[in-house]
Amino acid sequence: MVVVTHSEMQFGDFDSDSYYDIEQCNIYIKALGYGLKTVEFVLLKDALCFVEAKPSVPADFKQFISDVVQKFKDSLVLFLALHLKRHEGEVLPENLANVAISKVPMTFVLVLKRTTKQDLIPVKDALAKAFKGVLLSWNLSPNAVKVLNEESAQKYHLIPSGLE
What is the pTM of this model? Predict the structure, then answer.
C-alpha cells in the first residue's frame, strides 16, 4: 500500500499496482528544464485519475489555471507514451500497464488544502473552461475535471480519514 505527502496533505492508502509517481519517471526527470510539467501522481480507481495538489490558490489566478492545465495535459501525454511502451526501461505498475485506455473513464483532480467549498467553484469553472479542448477531444464529460479541498478529497478516497 502507498501513502504519500504532497502540499502538506497525506494521500493514500493506495494499491501499489494502481499508483504511479509520475514525477519520479525517468523521462520526466530527463525533461526537466524543457517545459514538461506533471501532476503529483496517476491513480487507477473507478477512473484513471491524474492528481495535482496545492496548498491554496495563489494570487495570480490566471497563471495558476494555466499551469494546472499544462500539468494535466503533459501528464496525460507522458502517461500515454509510457502505456504504449514508447520508452524502453520505463515500467508502469501492473494495473496501470494493463488498463484499457479506450474504455476507462479519466478524471483530472486538483486538490487544494486551504480552500473552502465555496471557493472551489470558480476554480473548477475556470479549470474546466481552460481544459475544454482536451475534454472534447477525448470525449470526456465536463465532470472529468474535479476540484476538491482536503475534506472532499477524503470523501473521494484520496486522503484517508484520520491521516493528517
Answer: 0.93
